[in-house]
Amino acid sequence: MKCVKSALTVALVLGCCLVVSSSVSAHSLWLNVTDYSPEIFTHPKYAPTPRAKTVVYFGWGHHYPVADFLGDKYLGECFVVQPDGSKDKLTPGNSGFRATELTMKSEGARIVAAALNPGFYGEVEGKKDFFKLHYEQYAKAVISVGKVPDDAFSKPVGHKFEIVPLTNPDDLQLGDWFKFKVLLDGKPAERADITACSLFSFTNESFVGHTDNKGEAKIRVLQHYGPWIVMAQMKQSPAGELKKKCQELSYTATITFAVP
Q1: Cβ distance 69 to 61 under 8 Å?
Q2: Which one, out of 19, 129, 135, 146, has a CA that is 20 to 30 A from the CA of 27?
């Protein structure tokens, strides 16, 4: 990977547009959406009640947008944040990629959120019940039905490790900067590793960098409209009881959105 000129700006590099994992064989979690800006539809026969529809499905592995199937034992809490800030539980589908249809009866911003069940990875040879790392992973996707406020996605959903947009993706045009912050326990996550890429990148360009001392970073939307993914990763030394169980703590967060 090439060095980054500034911690605030995420630099462009060439290489496979992969989702980078915490370790060589560990998988990563993200959310895909078939339509990030569904429109309200009505029809006297097929949709007498106005509604908008889209489908959310899970990405799991190393290759964006899909790579592997996510088993029940890994998946933790899933919910949808409604325009009024309330949270509705989301029950993922049973298909290979856990495809789940969302029906929305009003305009407004929705945030789909999911988490893995925390766990340990990589047993350390010669040490019983002691692992290389303890991992936590979180994923979000932002959806707009109609015109939404500029700050529609700027409120955290409550994940321990989370990417929070400072720019509304609906307002982006090619050449604009998508700004965001990364939080750990609600506080700025300094020097978190950042990876980002477009779904429609045919030349495999990706972006890498770090957050600054405010936990903020930005990527420039170049050449590609449509879906994008941003991933943040951070590692810490364990404390308390976890110090007896692992060598390292690993946090991963992803967010997907679409440039109109």
Answers
A1: no
A2: 129
